[in-house]
Amino acid sequence: MRFYCFILLLVLSLLSCNNANPAAITSSYIKAKSEASNHVANAHVRRHFSTHERFVEEGNEDSFEERTINMKLPDAAKLQSLINFQPLKKLAANIQKSTSDNQKATKELFESLDVGVVGSGIFQSTPYQTWAKFVTKVYKKNPEAGQAAMFSILRDHYGDEPLAKLLAEAHEVFSLLKLNVDEDDLLKNPLLSTWMSYEKKLGTENPNHALLLKLRERYDDADLAKMLVAAKNDRSTQVIATHVERAQLESWLNGKKTTEDVFKLLRLNTDTGVDLLKNPALKIWMKYVATSGQNAYQLLLLKLRTKYSDEQLAKILDVAARDSNVRIEVWKLEGAQHNDWLGGRASADSIFKLLKLNKEGEELFKSPILDTWVNYVAKLGKKSMDETMYSVMKKYYSDEKLEEMFAKAKNSIFTRKLASDLEQEMWRSQGKTADDIFKFLNLDKKDAYKLFDDPKIVTWATYVNRLNSLKKIPDDFALISELEKRFDDLDLARMLVYAHPPEKRKVLLPSCKNCSSRSGGPRVGHPHKSSRHWKNRAQTTC
What we know:
This is RxLR effector PexRD54 WY domain-containing protein. By secondary structure, this protein is mainly alpha-helical. The protein has 32 helices and no strands.
């Protein structure tokens, strides 16, 4: 590939110098000795290779083409001047002076293969490709010398003007740079920017569209989309990939492709379940949908519903939400599903049945789609989610069965909070008082001074606060008031003081968080047997 790069970049660089000071240019070439001619070529190649790298690092999209070679098309006058261009003649002379056996063999093969007979399209011809492979092999240890030898032979055979004309054709340049065989890393090829700049100089309105056409010669839309998504994740190719992706979207729009057409072009209709959501091409399809003013997630939901029931879809989304390879924001797709239910005024009960949660039995809290239902209930905007959920569950399960299910669910950190809240809602709906639950939890049988060491005291305290929150005028000291029914002030104060760890008091007495502004500050001395004094004492322990 280096030879092709060398020919193009050398000739174009010389052409671009036609407006510069000839003496200065000639001097820079004559300075080199005969063996340094290869370094001249390499300098051009390195300069053009670094152009694309600097562009990527700076991230300047607007100057993508302009920051490549600043050449002008070779008109007749320029081509004529090329023939008499002294640096080029000097370079050729130096190359001829370094004739070797390998160079003789290279020239003999050029003649025996009739490479020069081909004329137009030489760089894609079989004789030329065979010749180039031979030279690459012969000059394996010194590829620059091989490039120089080939250039010398081509120049001697064609002359400056015909050779320059061959190079001036953009499609020949694409082949010359070997971009047509760079299968995997085409977008990373530093010389790609050179070709795109050349396209622009030839008058191509949008080089990105020209590149898209080249890419479509070897990729279909589906594979190209996947390649572009991957390239956008690479800093070195992010900008060019974004340009080509935009060109791809524009080509579909100009071709009046429907969203269904593009869905099939990207072969998304062949994927199923989570595999569809992991397909890199899906994001490009969703961008195309957005250009038509439609909601991409809503349209994707409609497509999924042609294959899956709401229950199956909810399970797919649950799996997708935990898969790092999924390309979309799953919560938005779930939100589209919820909005569709809301639009149909679906009740919590109807969705419970739609997801077949009523048939889960004792495994209800293990169902992967229970969260889907819980999240939907939250969007219904009811005053009490717990009340709504419990009212639905009790239609399908007895209180005894629910009590068992809640107990099991509280053993898992994933369902503990939900099960506890629903259990307390069940107690409330059954009319259970704080005293009833105190006894139900067997807290009445605990040693008074070890009461706060029992984790069930937190359950009881939470239930007391739940009942208190439903009152028209909540009591800031609801917990204390309930405890006063069982313990006198002195015992209760001691129980709190000796509770370990001290942080447990704040958990047990959350209603005390605003007590400081009401109690008048801490007191010292022996607590009197009055509710008011005890509440002040409770504040100091909080």
